Amino acid sequence: MILNAEDCAKAVALVEDGRSQRRHLTSVETKNQLHQVLGTEVSVWTVRRRLRDVDLKACRPASGPKLLRRRRVARLQFDLEFDTVEYYTVY
Questions:
Q1: How far is residue 77 CA from its own chain's centroid?
Q2: Spatial separation of the C-alpha atoms in residues 61 and 23, rounded to whole Å
Q3: How far is residue 46's CA from residue 62's CA, in Å, rounded to a whole number?
Q4: Mean pLDDT of the region 62-83
Q5: What is the mean pLDDT of residues 79-86?
Q6: Residue 71 predicted with pLDDT over 70
Q7: Residue 53 contacts residue 40 (beta carbons within 8 Å)
Q8: C or N terminus of the chain, fewer CB within 10 Å?
Q9: Exposed, middle or buried by CB within 10 Å (0-12, 13-18, 19+), for 42?
């Protein structure tokens, strides 16, 4: 089934509302949610394509431990002291 502009706008609004509460919604879950709410049957690829068209891209959440405050401060301090001119100078 092809989504018309109105259904596409409703679908994007529905996804944007849902993503604020549940960020890791898969395209299959989004497709099922659209079927329940709008009563339209669309493919997973259509969902992905329409979301990509409005710059809602899939991404993985950051994994691993968070950066400690003292480490962030040390990185910032290094960046402020680092001489980029010397770094890019070719000998």
A1: 30
A2: 9
A3: 27
A4: 86
A5: 75
A6: yes
A7: no
A8: C
A9: buried
Full-prediction pTM beyond 0.70? no
**Cα 51 to Cα 1: distance, rounded to the nearest angstrom:** 16
Contacts of 12 (CB under 8 A, 6+ apart): 50, 51, 54, 56
Q: What is the pLDDT of residue 53?
A: 81
Do 67 and 83 contact (CB within 8 A), yes or no?
no
Distance CA 49, CA 55 (A): 10
Q: Which two tokens stand for residue 25?
A: 């919604």
DSSP conformational letter for 55: T
What number of CA atoms fall less than 13 Å from residue 17's CA on the CB side? 9
